[in-house]
Amino acid sequence: MDAIQQQMFDTYRAARLQEPPPPLVGTHDARVLRELRDYRRFEAVLHGRLATGRLRAALTRLFAPPRPRPPACR
After folding, report:
1. What does the pLDDT read at residue 32?
2. % helix, strand, coil for the chain, step of 5
3. What is the pLDDT of residue 54?
4. Distances, alpha carbon 13 to alpha carbons 6, 22, 26, 32, in Å
5. How far is the C-alpha of 50 from the C-alpha of 17, rounded, in Å?
6. Burial call 23-48: b when 16+ CB within 10 Å, e when fewer
7. Which secondary-structure segment (H or E) carries 55?
8. Which regions in the chain score pLDDT beneath 70?
């Protein structure tokens, strides 16, 4: 059963029981993502890491050109 079928089933059940219908699929997606971001920032601070800019720093390390190595001593 996919999300749309579950939504239809829940709406039908709510109508039969004279209850308010459930929220539409995807209504609270942005809110959930925002809360997840805030929680991850909070956890980072608790563990002593930077709370912001971690993704940009990781992408910079991943895609930055390699630094030249110092010449080897002979």
Report:
1. 93
2. 55, 0, 45
3. 74
4. 10, 10, 20, 26
5. 50
6. eeeeeeeeeeeeeeeeeeeeeeeeee
7. helix 54-63
8. 74
